[in-house]
Amino acid sequence: MGFDIHRFQGVVDEELICSICQSVLEDPVQIQQCEHSYCNDCIREWLKRKRTCPQDCKEVSEKDLLPASRLLRNLLGRMIITCDFVDEGCSELLSLDALQSHVSTCVYNARRLQPCDQGCGEIIAKNEV
Ligand SMILES: [Zn+2]
Ligand SMILES: [Zn+2]
Ligand SMILES: [Zn+2]
Fold first, then answer.
1. What does each C-alpha distance from 56 to 11, 60, 65, 107 come to in angstroms?
2. How would DSSP label each residue in 49-64?
3. How far is Cα 2 from Cα 13, in angstroms, rounded to an integer?
4. Residues 112, 67 within the same domain
5. How confident is the model at residue 127, as a pLDDT?
6. Which ranges of the chain have pLDDT less than 50?
7. Separation of 15 CA from ligand 3 center, angstroms?
8. pLDDT of the residue at 124
9. 68/45 Cα distance (integer angstroms)
10. What separation in Å is there between the alpha carbon of 117 and the centre of ligand 3?
11. Ligand at shortest distance from the CA of 28
């Protein structure tokens, strides 16, 4: 499942959208024969039900999936997206490359790991304090 298009700043290029989930590619792979790109999770789910490329109906099997090209991954990595916790109040804008490391330390992330403030020295998730 990709990233919601509405989380991105400006216009999202069609090439960066997964036609299965209609969202921006997450962990993209490409099909060897036709070079169509999809989210890794989306196309693997799809291939469990159908053995074809969703866009051109060519026959595909799981071994035809290759990591997406460096160009595509670089373009994706530079896209500017809002934090996962924008609804909780985080106003950060990040490149997709930086998103994961931000989210894991975002002050709005209830699952963020932090030292226990009772002083027991344990590292625990914030919502389990
Ligand atoms: Zn997808
Ligand atoms: Zn295709
Ligand atoms: Zn944040």
1. 25, 10, 15, 44
2. H-SB-TTT--B--GGG
3. 14
4. no
5. 66
6. none
7. 27
8. 63
9. 17
10. 21
11. 1
| C-alpha gyration radius of the chain | 18
User: 120: Cβ–Cβ under 8 A, 6 or more apart, which residues?
Assistant: none
User: How far does residue 9's CA lie from ligand 3's centre (Å)?
Assistant: 16
On the 0-12 / 13-18 / 19+ scale of CB atoms within 10 A, 12 is middle
Whichever domain contains 65, its CATH number is: 3.30.40.10
Confidence (pLDDT) at 10: 85
Task: Yes or no: say if 36 and 27 are a contact pair by the CB < 8 Å rule.
Answer: no
- Residue 129: the pLDDT is 54
CA of residue 47 to ligand 2 center, whole Å: 13
Distance 8 CA to ligand 3 centre (A): 14
Ligand positioned closest to the Cα atom of 60: 2
**Cα 72 to ligand 2 centroid, rounded to whole Å:** 16
Same domain flag for 91 and 69: no
CA of 58 to the centre of ligand 2 (A): 6
Mark whether 70 and 49 lie in a shared domain.
yes
